[in-house]
Structure formats: C-alpha cells, structure tokens
Amino acid sequence: MGAIGLNNPGFLSVIVGVVLAVILTILILALNLPKLLIMVFTAIGGAATIVSGFLLMFGQIHTAALQYGFAAAAIRASWIWSLVVIVLAVLGFVAQWRTMQEYTLEWSEQSSPS
Looking at the whole model, is its pTM more than 0.70? Predict the structure, then answer.
C-alpha cells in the first residue's frame, strides 16, 4: 500500500487488498490460468528447495536458520545461487508444461450439450 501512498494499515488497506484479490481471482479464472500459476509456483518453490538442500549439505546454512528464512537470504546474497534457482525454475516449469499439456481442470471445460 505504501507504493500508492497509503502508509496507514487500516480499514482502507484491507478494502483495497480484498478488491484487488477479487479482481485477480476473476482474471485468473476467466483466462483459465490456475494450471499455469500452479506450475510457475511449484517450479520456483522446487528450485529454491533444491538450492537450499545443497546449501544445507555443504554447510553453508544451518537447519535452525531455516525457520527464519535464512535459505532465501543466502540465495539472494550470491548472484550465482540466484542464477541457479532461476535456471532450475525454468527447467522445472518446462518439464511440467510438457507433461501436463493434455490435462485440463474439469470445472474449466465447457460442457457441450448432448
């Protein structure tokens, strides 16, 4: 909200947030994007998890630090890890895209009269 000049987290911020959420939900459903968004988010999450796992294995971060989001901070601290996350996310998205093209959500298919 600070980006549009509203720094007071009050009722107006909640209303604007709810209205934007409803608009984005309608847009996502109208354009049939749930499958695409799921693939994007799981690709990004999987890539960050893989890199975090490697950082744990090589002792760059400790398990106790994971509860504070330290893995994300460690990834952001080095452009190499950020690049690895981006490449893995793209590869994950492409893999999902190729295997999931034939599937559609049942409720999103238009029913034809029989």
Answer: no
